[in-house]
Design brief:
By secondary structure, the chain is an alpha/beta fold. Helices cover about 35% and strands about 15% of the residues. It has 12 helices and 7 strands. Bound molecules: S-adenosylmethionine (SAM). The site of S-adenosylmethionine (SAM) has 23 residues, from helix 4.
Length: about 325
């Protein structure tokens, strides 16, 4: 045994024999409960836009739906503020929706698998970390028997260790972002996952296309919908909107505007965000169309990075 740790007494902390004062007692007070927030890094995530979006939301509590969930920044914020009487969360991404359900229903199993990933990955040098990342990436659920927990752990591991937290899939639905080379990527983040799990209790999470929204909204008596589709590209070279198995086309944007008109006829309030361009403004002509400032890094050309306007469309005023 090395000399420095040969004596147990040397390891024992020295007790402070002074009487306890208030300052001492504060240390043992209740642990802080983390505010729920997205547990995935997500391109187009609305975390930074929450201060601009909050005043645009209806007041009070409501039955809520979010059909383009992504990292769920708006959902988690509304949940933290106790604004939701009911919530329906949908996204077309199979891995994303599966991960949300596992965080909601099987968090201890997920944490165990993430802890195992983290222990192996952090013990490796850079070259072996890359090999480990690509081995996990290549172990695709379509080719291997994989239960929901393993699939969710795979997704979270890849999301935390890939380049820029970019969850990007090719046309066959295979995640294809490269390795990210972060010194300490924070693979487990147990506090964040516990907070997200609490926020997701009782929430209806579904893999669904936005075109299914009007029926779901009717069945669940939804009162307010926030829609954050992939941005319509501002130029032919500038877009990232290939989250799940392909681009979100102009035709899809037009179908989404039809869905919003249907929500309006159903008497449901909606707030939608998108890129500020003539095409989007034209699609929502007749509704209240405004702008907020958004920081972009991936959607625009390299020479036009920085803050730009984002369109917000509403069918109500508050
Ligand atoms: C801009 S992101 C949403 C970001 C989210 N608001 C946040 O704060 O993280 C758009 C989402 O739409 C999803 N999506 C793409 N096409 C879809 C479709 N046809 N139906 C439903 N969701 C779709 C993508 O998987 C992606 O998660």
């Amino acid at each position: 045994m090395p000399a420095a740790v040969s004596s147990r007494a040397a390891l024992r902390p020295q007790l402070d024999k002074r009487p306890l004062r208030a300052a001492h007692l504060r240390v043992v007070s209740e642990p802080q409960v983390a505010r729920p927030a997205p547990f995935l890094k997500w391109v187009g995530g609305k975390g930074k836009l929450l201060p601009a979006l909050r005043p645009l939301m209806p007041k009070g509590k409501f039955r809520y739906a979010e059909p383009f969930l992504g990292g769920g920044a708006v959902f988690f914020d509304l949940r933290a503020e106790d604004r939701l009487e009911h919530a329906l969360l949908c996204d077309v991404g199979r891995d994303l929706v599966g991960a949300c359900k596992v965080v909601r229903d099987a968090l201890p199993d997920l944490l165990a698998q993430l802890t195992a990933h983290e222990a192996q990955y952090l013990a490796m040098d850079e070259e072996n970390r890359a090999l480990y990342f690509y081995a996990v990436r290549n172990r695709h659920p379509a080719d291997f028997v994989m239960d929901d927990v393993e699939r969710a752990a795979r997704m979270l591991f890849l999301n935390r260790t890939c380049f820029n937290g970019l969850w990007r899939e090719n046309r066959s639905g295979r995640f294809n972002a490269p390795h990210g080379r972060y010194a300490n990527p924070g693979i487990v983040q147990a506090d964040k996952l516990h907070a997200a799990s609490r926020a997701l209790q009782g929430v209806d999470v579904r893999q669904a296309d936005f075109r299914a929204l009007p029926e779901l909204v009717q069945d669940q008596r939804i009162e307010f919908v926030y829609l954050d589709p992939p941005y319509h590209p501002l130029s032919t070279t500038s877009s990232f909107n290939a989250y799940s198995g392909g681009q979100f086309s102009g035709k899809a944007q037009a179908e989404l505007a039809d869905v919003c008109r249907r929500l309006d006829r159903q008497g449901v309030r909606f707030l939608l965000s998108n890129s500020d361009c003539g095409f989007v403004r034209e699609l929502y002509r007749g509704f209240d169309v405004g702008t907020i400032r958004a920081a972009r890094s991936i959607n625009c050309k390299a020479d036009s990075r920085g803050d730009i306007d984002e369109v917000v469309v509403r069918n109500y005023a508050n």
